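Researcher: Structure for this, please.
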Amino acid sequence: MAQTIIRKAAFAGLAVIIAALVSPLTKAKDFPTRPIQVIVPFAGGSASDVVTRVLLNQMEKTLGQRFVVENRPGAGGNSGTAAAAKASPDGYTLVMSTSGPLAANKTLFKELGYEPEKDFAPISLFAILPNVIVINSKLPPKTLMEFIVYAKAHPKELNYGSVGVGSSQHLAGAYFEQIAGVQLTHVPYRNIAQYTPDFITGSVPLGFQFLPNVLGLLQNGDARALAVTSENRMTALPDVPTAAEAGVKNYETFGWLALLAPAGTPKPIVDKIYGALAEAVKDSAVRGRFVEFGAEPVSPGPEELQKFIVSETAKWRHIIEKAGILPM
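Model: Predicted structure, token format:
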């Protein structure tokens, strides 16, 4: 009698284990059965928003379900990212987040409301957005090294604009000061539309901008691109050297876009979403649209994204603290 009870208990325990193993696989096989919400923690129409929508539109073809984008801007991207961290880990709520909310903001803000390295199941990076170092075309320097010499001769006289304290443009400028040994003056704006007239008049003649923000200035001849801040040249600006090629070594800074799910999302579901993402960025039309917005498509996967978030957090903590930028 006792042995029978023990055997029944053993079989029951084994059944529970098998069910636990099979359930995620079954869910992944059927996933998705309804539309997937993607929180974008920035305003609609921004470069990150547009590039994300291009990606998701292509992923729909692989997964067979619509993606519904919900823009939740606020607190430098923290508000929407925090909301996603609290969502059900079932694959039906994802978040597109960036270098700010997932790395730099951990040092820039006293409280995030989430832990970037623990509260998410990484899916993958999907876009890199290099900064473009631009100056007003009326300034004398024609190369990056000439600009550094010019800046050293005019300490704190050269203003550079950004869309706010702690923005990627601001941090790129602060990092450049540290690497190049120059002293610049940061001028924050609420939006890029306010910055453009001051750049044209020459009162704020410098920028470390994403391409969409300065493409019109470059096309009109109001701006001169001195370098891009990524490891490789930008597809959209093939004639503009990287900072390293222009003579400034160890200066790489860029925005990046990543797709994540709440922590606890079953790995088979994460893998299925990643498969659709990796397939989407191979599409020539998607790659072409990315290039239009100054983005380079990538798809390294979940493990690489996790490592990247850790390394970027450490990198920007050092730069921010050295620049003396106080947490908000």
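Researcher: Any notable elements?
Model: The radius of gyration is 23 Å. The chain has two domains: 36-128+254-323, 132-228.
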